[in-house]
Amino acid sequence: MSLTRDQIRRVAQLARIALPAQEADVVLERLNRVLSMIDQLQAVDTEGIEPMSHALDVVQPLRPDAVTETDQRAALQAGAPAVEDGLYLVPKVIE
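Given the sequence above, the corresponding structure tokens read:
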């Protein structure tokens, strides 16, 4: 698959990217190289190959699910202009 100059201009317009005419050819060439590499990857026969999440067979160590900090809500809300039932009160901005 390869792109045309008109397609590059259209994509730039849709993305709201200013693309000067002299840079369009450079972008076109770079994107066509990327698409060519994607075509090469799609040509590889992957039949029978099981997907993997990591190149190495490793296990993520998990930390224990335990509370490590104390409740500091009262101290954090002490400087708030308005608090009710542990919630910050803010002025209404939409009528």
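The first strand starts at residue 83 and ends at 84. Try to locate this feature in the token string yourself.
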